[in-house]
Design brief:
The chain is α/β, with parallel strands linked by helices and about 325 residues long. The protein contains 15 helices and eight strands.
């Protein structure tokens, strides 16, 4: 089925073979083959997950690495019939190695342009401010990367430690980003509760909510999300693997869909969470009993919630409609 993905972190989606090649090129001890990388990325809790992530960052040392990263991530997504991606990237994680945000951005744009030529997959980038680095860093980054807005960079996001760094302090950063032409999304309601989602909406003016898992804590928030059709970038496997949701069976994605919320499904950090966007759609079928019509609606929700220009969005909706009609006519299995 044709797909669009709106909540994907480039660094968390790097294919294992690409990670292995990077690690071997940097002579990382103990890495001889892809299985060695898989072992190092295994984790039992959130603390282990952070340690695995930091280990991975140690051998991404050149700005040119990011061209290959973007290309390989989009290559793998294209094999799943993903047509469009809005991908987060976090330059702040690499500045201590002497890299620059502009250099990383330019390399990402080169990689995604090459993937667009080779595979036909379209991609726009969203720079992640990372709450932990502070509003001053975010303010500087938004200003520094403004020349790339509309040239491959489309928006700004706010990841990092949601529970320790509330969104309120980023209000002026987001206002500045909006004035400079960035589209706005923010992680909220993943680790922290409904007030975090309200802050992203009311303080930051976020057009989409990353995760939104805990919106159920506030009935008035559910009503607001339904009335305003504020998109939720939901990531079921991610939520279970990080422990913010106890199990797939307790995940609210089906409930939110039935309540009329604008739900999308995404893979977040697929390499780290051992998933794919195709698997996330399969989960909708296997764990939540989504029908073909409902899968189509979720896929179209992602297109509608995207930051595509209107004409491109209309063309993509038509493209998806046509492909889904062919799939249903062929009585293919959902997924």
């Amino acid at each position: 089925m044709p797909k669009a993905e709106l909540h994907l972190h480039m660094e968390g989606a790097i294919p294992i073979d690409t990670l292995c090649a990077l690690a071997r090129a940097k002579r990382v001890p103990g890495v001889r083959n892809p299985n060695d990388v898989k072992k190092r990325l295994a984790y039992a809790n959130f603390g282990d997950f952070i340690r695995a992530w930091l280990w991975m960052n140690t051998f991404i040392r050149s700005e040119d690495d990011f061209e290959g990263i973007a290309y390989s991530v989009l290559r793998d997504l294209s094999r799943q019939n993903v047509r469009y991606v809005e991908a987060f990237y976090s330059p702040g994680n690499y500045l201590e190695h002497g890299l620059t945000s502009q250099g990383i951005t330019e390399s990402m744009i080169k990689g995604k342009q090459r993937a667009e030529r080779d595979f036909g997959i379209r991609c726009r980038l969203i720079v992640d401010l990372v709450r932990d680095l502070g509003p001053e860093y975010g303010r500087d980054l938004v200003k520094e990367l403004e020349p790339y807005v509309g040239r491959g960079l489309v928006g700004v996001g706010l990841g990092g430690s949601e529970d320790r760094f509330p969104a309120d302090s980023y209000e002026q950063v987001y206002e500045d980003a909006r004035r400079r032409g960035y589209r706005l999304t923010a992680h909220a309601g993943e680790v922290a509760g409904a007030p975090s989602i309200w802050a992203a909406i009311k303080k930051l003016g976020a057009e989409r909510i990353g995760h939104g898992l805990r919106a159920y804590e506030d009935g008035s928030l559910i009503s607001y999300l339904r009335k305003n059709q504020t998109p939720l970038e939901m990531c079921p496997t991610s939520n279970v693997r990080t422990g913010v949701c106890s199990s797939l069976s307790s995940h609210p994605i089906r409930e939110y869909f039935e309540q009329g919320l604008l739900v999308t499904v995404n893979s977040d950090d697929p390499t780290m969470f051992d998933t794919t966007i195709s698997r996330e759609y399969s989960i909708l079928v296997d764990s939540f009993n989504f029908t073909w019509d409902e899968l189509k609606q979720v896929a179209l929700n992602a297109v509608e919630a995207s930051f595509m220009p209107v004409a491109e969005k209309e063309d993509t909706i038509h493209e998806f409609d046509t492909e889904f009609d062919h799939l249903v006519a062929a009585d293919a299995s959902p997924g």
